[in-house]
């Protein structure tokens, strides 16, 4: 009926996020989280430098098992059987020793040049290379997000293309493993307050 009140759709533009900027840092296992996306990370945290304009991809991979009783067509229970958190990015500063150490599973000290020459070999039998990661996503002064991965490892590396009209980059998928507390990712956000819902 024409006299019925309209439903008010609640929206808040300042609660939208556009990841316009951001960065990543890496540190040895056991390193304390910077804890605030407004705090500049210091040693032992080392920067990853420029990241491609694809930004940071926060991945959620989960598998589940559903249980449907005999005579039913819909499940009455579902159990999560696998829950994986990943972060994807492409590091553009392939000459940065921090970035090279991650790509080739080396200690940064192994990449110190001698007479201007850096030399190393890639092993045919790589071993686990877990480190701590810190990622920050920024949207002006509105959104500031921090992701602390206490135990992360690069589990996928894409091919690297060297050509005239393309920036070479190391494209990674970083898998987050549980720490001693059973947590994979810690979130530290500075975002606008959500206004109390009044129903009008």
Task: Describe what this molecule looks like in 3D.
This protein has 200 residues and is mainly beta. Helices cover 4% and strands 36% of the residues. It contains 1 helix and 8 strands. Strands 1, 2, 3, 4, 5, 6, 7 and 8 form an 8-stranded antiparallel beta sheet that branches. The radius of gyration is 22 Å and the shape is globular. The mean pLDDT is 94.
User: What radius of gyration results from the CA coordinates?
Assistant: 22 Å
Which range best describes the helical content: under 10%, 10-25%, 25-40%, 40-55%, 55-70% or over 70%? under 10%
Total helices: the number is 1
Number of strands: 8
The secondary structure category is mainly beta
Order of helices and strands: EEEEHEEEE
Average pLDDT score: 94
Low-confidence stretches: none
Cα-to-Cα separation, first versus last residue: 20 Å
Can you summarize the main beta sheet?
8 strands, antiparallel
Task: Specify the overall morphology.
Answer: globular
User: How much strand content do the residues show?
Assistant: 35-45%
């Amino acid at each position: 009926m024409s006299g019925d009140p309209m439903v008010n759709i609640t929206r808040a533009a300042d609660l939208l996020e556009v990841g316009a900027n951001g960065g990543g840092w890496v540190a040895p296992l056991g390193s304390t989280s910077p804890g605030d996306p407004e705090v500049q990370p210091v040693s032992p945290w080392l920067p990853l430098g420029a990241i491609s304009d694809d930004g940071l991809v926060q991945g959620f991979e989960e598998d589940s098992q559903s249980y449907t009783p005999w005579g039913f067509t819909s499940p009455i229970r579902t159990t999560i059987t696998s829950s994986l958190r990943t972060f994807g990015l492409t590091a553009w500063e392939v000459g940065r020793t921090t970035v090279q150490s991650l790509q080739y599973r080396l200690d940064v000290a192994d990449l110190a040049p001698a007479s201007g020459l850096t030399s190393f070999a890639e092993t045919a039998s790589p071993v686990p290379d877990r480190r701590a990661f810190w990622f920050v996503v920024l949207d002006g002064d509105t959104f500031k997000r921090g992701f602390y991965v206490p135990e992360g490892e690069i589990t996928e590396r894409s091919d690297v293309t060297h050509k005239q009209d393309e920036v070479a980059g190391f494209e990674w998928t970083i898998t987050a493993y549980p720490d001693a507390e059973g947590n994979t990712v810690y979130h530290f956000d500075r975002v606008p307050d959500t206004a109390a819902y009044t129903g009008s």
